Amino acid sequence: MTNFRIILNVIGNLVLAAGLHMDAAGAAIATVTGIILNVGFYIYLNRTENTPG
Question: What is the mean predicted confidence (pLDDT) over 14-19?
Fold first, then answer.
């Protein structure tokens, strides 16, 4: 799961910080977005794997 967040963070940093010239703010937005998506993905997978049936 951590790899997913790292990949999102690197891509987000390249797009926001380098591509859109947002510097530190772009890196912060990319990091927070990656963490939020990673937590959501973890919750989704945890629910689908533990459903009875």
Answer: 87
Angle CA 47–44–42, to nearest 5: 105
Contacts of 3 by beta carbon, 8 Å cutoff, 6+ apart: none
Q: What single letter denotes the amino acid at residue 36?
A: I
Predicted confidence at residue 12, as pLDDT, reads 87
pTM over 0.70: yes
Residue located via tokens 């977005």: 33
Alpha carbons 37 and 34: distance in angstroms, whole number: 5
**Distance separating alpha carbons of residues 39 and 20, to the nearest angstrom:** 26
